[in-house]
Write a structure and sequence with these properties.
The protein has 246 residues and is α/β, with parallel strands linked by helices. It is 48% helix and 15% strand. It has one domain: 3-Layer(aba) Sandwich (Rossmann fold). It is built from eight helices and seven strands, in the order βαβαβαβαβααβααβ. Helix 4 (103-131) links the parallel strand 4 (85-88) and strand 5. The protein is globular and about 50 Å long. The structure holds 1,4-dihydronicotinamide adenine dinucleotide.
């Protein structure tokens, strides 16, 4: 078991990639804080994990609110007593072509995807530093490494995650904390259900793989970066995109 005895916090774990990662982490021996905005789906996910014998507890949060994140982190630490892995996976899209993008939609995506990662990381880092070891993994995107039409706000948030990751790797690497990012390509979850079939076909043609990505592909990258196997990997952006052309 690659995460035996570890406590992992996964944001956005009620659905999609985060939920699949929670299942995988549970199978690998982790105890889990299922952290999400969506109370119903989050409780259901934690319940399911417990039925499978995993010590999992749901914590409700809006990662865009620092007060909410602070309260969640205090509850997590009170419940589990430590934190070994933080996966900053929660994210949203509010796509529009740049000239039509509303300021409020720009700001909300930044607040959740970028500022939320800062709030969550800042909330758990002191405990990791006291432990002398910890893993912070944040979810960027190919939109963050190469931009994407109609995603000014999302691309800015995901590129910002890379800047923060590289900064934190430098600040905290010498203290035993590994800080890395994963940049998924197009992964089959609810998030891409709104993409028109024509565009999905174009994406397929840009990908050097016989299929689209699956949540499991990203969850396996999280697992590597969360495990001791990646102790000498710091400040990297692991692209899980089937070799996509930028
Ligand atoms: P999803 O929409 O299936 O799941 C996201 C989860 O985040 C949901 O459970 C949602 O309730 C939660 N969430 C949203 N806002 C929140 C908030 N303010 N506070 C707490 N929780 C909140 O999305 P998916 O596809 O699983 O994406 C996971 C991560 O992967 C995101 O960061 C996304 O940007 C990234 N990603 C996804 C790709 C894809 O093709 N699906 C491609 C590249 C990156």
């Amino acid at each position: 078991m690659r995460l035996a005895g570890k406590v992992a916090v996964i944001t956005g774990a009620a659905n999609g990639i985060g939920a699949v990662a929670a299942t995988l982490f549970g199978q690998q021996g982790a105890q889990l804080a299922i952290v999400d905005y969506n109370e119903q789906a989050g409780e259901a996910k934690a319940e399911k994990l417990r039925a499978d014998g995993v010590n999992a507890v749901f914590f409700q949060v809006d990662v865009a609110s620092q007060a909410s994140v602070k309260a969640m982190a205090a509850n997590v630490l009170e419940t589990f007593g430590r934190v070994d892995v933080l996966i900053n996976n929660a994210g949203i899209t509010k796509d529009a072509m740049t000239l039509k993008l509303e300021a409020a939609d720009f700001q909300r995506v930044i607040d959740v995807n970028l500022t939320g990662v800062f709030y969550c990381t800042q909330a758990f880092l002191p405990t990791m530093l006291a432990q002398g070891k910890g893993k912070v993994i944040s979810t960027s995107s190919i939109a963050g490494t190469g931009g994407n039409i109609g995603q000014t706000n999302y691309a800015a948030s995901k590129a910002g995650i890379i800047g923060m990751t590289q900064t934190w790797a430098k600040e905290f690497g010498p203290k035993g904390i590994n800080v890395n990012a994963v940049a998924p390509g197009f992964i089959e979850t609810e998030m891409i259900e709104t993409i028109p079939a024509k565009i999905l076909e174009r994406i397929r043609q840009m990908t050097y793989a016989p299929r689209l990505g699956k949540p499991e592909d990203v969850a396996n990258a999280y697992l590597f970066l969360a495990s001791d196997e990646s102790d000498f990997v710091n400040g990297t952006v692991l692209e899980v995109d089937g070799g996509m052309l930028k």
